[in-house]
Design goal:
Length: 143
């Protein structure tokens, strides 16, 4: 039986503090490579991308967002764990209402799985120099 594939709509938020951005760390064992991505997640049926962004940050970091600005839409086709993926990303820039999070590093949270996610404040230059791998790479133009 053929597996049905879907395009996943997601909302991500670029949170900046000086020259650093808050990024979740991930690892693809098939590529043996660590990657970083802006925080956020899936848009649920009937929910706007802005509502999804606010909900995801509340669920993951227990904070509200402020100064939210829509940046654009990115189509992301990728391979993760040897499986093809396809996302439509609504990208925002935003600030965290909980100011203590700007001093925390690392920040650990759960996104519905049993394994905690770790986020770090990372310098923009480390992504632009390709020292660190930002996904999707199209986000580089928004940093």
């Amino acid at each position: 039986m053929e597996q049905t594939r879907h395009i996943r709509p997601i909302a991500l938020g670029l949170v900046r503090h000086g020259d650093r951005y808050l990024m979740a760390e991930g690892y693809d064992p098939t590529k043996q490579k660590t990657f970083y991505r802006a925080l956020g997640g899936g848009i649920e049926f009937g929910e706007s991308s802005l509502e999804a962004l606010k909900r995801e940050f509340w669920e993951e970091l227990h904070t509200e967002l402020k100064n939210i600005t829509y940046l654009g839409c990115i189509e992301n086709r990728f391979t993760f764990l040897n499986q093809p993926g396809h996302e439509i990303i609504q990208l925002y820039q935003c600030d965290l209402a909980d100011l203590t999070l700007y001093q925390a590093d690392p920040i650990q949270f759960f996104d519905g799985t049993e394994v905690p996610i770790t986020a770090h404040w990372l310098e923009r230059d480390r992504f632009q120099s390709n020292e660190l791998w930002l996904v999707p790479e199209a986000c580089l133009s928004y940093l």
